[in-house]
Amino acid sequence: MIPHLSRRMMLAGLGAGTLATAGTRPALAQPVFEDNPFQLGVAAGDPLPDGFVIWTRLAPRPLEPDHGMPSQPMAVNWEVATNAGFGTVVRSGEAIARPELGHAVHVEVGGLEPGRPYFYRFTAGRERSGVGRAKTTPIVGSALDRTRFGIVGCQAYESGYYTAHRKIAAEDLDFIFCYGDYIYEGRGNRIYGSTSPQENLRVHLGGEVYTVTDYRQRYAQYTMDSDLMASRQSAAWFAVWDDHEIDNNWVADLDQDGTDPAIFALRKQAAMQAFYEHMPLRRSSFPRGSAMQLYRRAQYGNLLDLNLLDTRQYRTDQPCADRFNSSCEGINDRAAEVLGQAQEAWLLNNLNRSEATWKALAQQIMVMDLDRNPGEDYGVNTDSWAGYRVPRARLLQHIKDRRIDNVVVLTGDEHQNYAGELHIDGRNPEAAPIATEFVATSISSGGDGQDVRSDQEAFLRANPQLKFRNSQRGYVLCDVTPERWQTEFKVLDQVQNRNGVLTTRAKFAVEAGDARLVSA
Known about the structure:
- The chain is 16% helix and 28% strand.
- The protein is of the alpha+beta class.
- The protein folds into two domains: 5-135, Immunoglobulin-like; 147-519, Alkaline phosphatase D (PhoD) (Purple Acid Phosphatase, chain A, domain 2, 4-Layer Sandwich), CATH 3.60.21.70.
């Protein structure tokens, strides 16, 4: 008997799952839904010159263990058009939503024209999804005079509302880079990252998540937010993870709780499956057990090479017992890795060969080696590149020695906005910086935050490579031309109220051929 048949849907074609004749596909169920199956919205991602991935997930009851679906494949139809009214449909087809993947659908659309917007939607039974919008990338190497994109991440559901997502959805962007922490895995009992005892406005369902069913429910709770859905529908996303998609500060096969690596691998496997199920990723990122291929490259004409990095999966354990604001001999470990040998070689080769004006490293953890204890003993964030001095210096020295111009690092994780210049040793900076780094604040993690922290003056004085620091919530916009890279820090006065006011807190620019930051 099909589970929940009488309560949720009537299915025509009860022969679904059986072969009519040898060599034919099983007949698929044609559902009539009692509840909207597209409650998680739609999304697009990983664009190329001829197409992109379009995503949805059938979930009439998203927060229930079976998400309101029977355990059998379902047919889902899709369309891509040149206009929002779908007057000119240029591609269409049928996909299969499989129960093994939580009835998620990933369609790799091809055959589109480069460098232009398209619109897409899905149909299941008599139900139709909302409409998403995504742009293909320009032809690789073609002359391009501008690209404009946004950066988002760190969106603890319990810490505040997703007003920033609603605001970025109104921007006309070529793409959005999500640097990670799309969900938070913990049980939660107060605003994440805040020292305030303020009660949460929103509360996670269930406790800490461990199984694929747990992770699916957590992703569903986040993704059902209407502001987040608007952001995902507004532009193609490039999505990577940080730590909270699996467990706080995890690296390689290690969590920070001493769990048997074999047991932790089971949790990683569940988390990676749920991550894939909810992100508009290509088949090349399909999880294989407790491993997943996430580092990849996107190219925007002759203007921008975007290297998307994974700073979790191949990293050695954090030094100094993962203590924040610490310094110990482990920071100088010559065997330490951040990217792992294969990913590092891939990145350096990309940088060496790139013919684009700008080379971006889109990743998670700060590269600036900031002194986190101004006026006291030197201490770094050991969960950042500063805790891995040897691989950090190896990357920056390569950029310097090869004279690779116009390298810009895009970072998240810190729940703050930063803009700074990169040197091999930030305490003893070279005459000219090697590269530039922009750190995007959180969407909600940390609560409302504040513009200027009490230690601001001392912090900036102790870190001359740092040019800007702000602790409010929001997102970042990057406007890139052949002559300059401009970054705009958009901040909200509050996230404890859906009507937070968005303003531009600061603008910084980098001129082509000169890694020094200037106020724009």
